[in-house]
Amino acid sequence: MSESKTEPPPTLFICDLCGLNSPFSYYGQKPPNTRAIVLLEECFVAKDPFSPDKEKFLILGSCCSLCDKCVCVGADCSLFYTKRFCMQCVNQHLDQFPHQIRAELAKRRQSSSTTVS
Ligand SMILES: [Zn+2]
Ligand SMILES: [Zn+2]
């Protein structure tokens, strides 16, 4: 591998909510160099820089199925429930998610919020 100036810069995945950014190598449901992996959704995928194993990859994020925002897979930014939803859409359509999901979110909120007096 040689780095030349003519090489285009890597395409960056940028999370619309938290601003996380990282170059990605593939977008889709079946990352290259993997034998039998088909992802549940189209994702931004990057090779795992810490692993020499070609089949190791990281899922950076995906697009919200409602508003098309790019969001990372962080618990604060998106939720996967049959499809990917960004947290903004989740909050807007909270009543359409099953009780189980809402309870999970409420739990998260409680544990992450610091006591404000
Ligand atoms: Zn994010
Ligand atoms: Zn959204």
Automatic annotation (TrEMBL):
Domain of life from the UniProt record: Eukaryota
Domain Cysteine-rich DPF motif per the UniProt entry, residue ranges: 13-105
Any coiled-coil regions, as ranges: none
Pfam families: C6_DPF
Family, as annotated: Belongs to the CDPF1 family.
PANTHER family named among the record's database cross-references: CYSTEINE-RICH DPF MOTIF DOMAIN-CONTAINING PROTEIN 1, CYSTEINE-RICH PDF MOTIF DOMAIN-CONTAINING PROTEIN 1
Identification of the protein by name: Cysteine-rich DPF motif domain-containing protein 1
Organism: Knipowitschia caucasica (Caucasian dwarf goby)
Upper taxonomic lineage: Eukaryota, Metazoa, Chordata, Craniata, Vertebrata
